[in-house]
């Protein structure tokens, strides 16, 4: 797996791996299920997902999933995913989620800034976040991270999503 660490001294992003499995499962709550996961996680499903993340890191993408770690606490606080768009070169989509004990502390915003820096170093020129309009916490993170509203779209299942973009 890639030996990648991106840090600002408070938050460190490193490839999500099987060592993160227990903390990842323990951190899931109704909000993560509603806004990010699409359904309650299972040990088997999370293990399959993390193994796929490992394969993506080895292959160089297109999905690169980071564990969000707090330096001082040594804890997994959540995840942030970068999906490098094959159809739109130079574009990366971000998705993030924090576990309940770590919300409201600026960790998501720090993580987005770190992930954007990593994506830019890999050649991305534009970052995009798609979020359901009712997910006000995620919208606030996008705005605090320098993303601007660019319009509304629909997901494959018809869910309305607001699009936010930021030049890298």
Automatic annotation (TrEMBL):
PROSITE patterns: GNAT. InterPro entries: Acyl_CoA_acyltransferase, GNAT_dom, Ribosomal_N-acetyltransferase. It holds the Pfam family Acetyltransf_3. Keywords: Transferase. Residues 11-168 form the N-acetyltransferase domain. GO terms for cellular component: cytoplasm. The keyword Transferase applies. One of its GO terms (molecular function) is protein N-terminal-serine acetyltransferase activity. The keyword Transferase applies. Coiled coil: none annotated. PANTHER family: ACETYLTRANSFERASE (PTHR43441:SF10), RIBOSOMAL-PROTEIN-SERINE ACETYLTRANSFERASE (PTHR43441). This is GNAT family N-acetyltransferase.
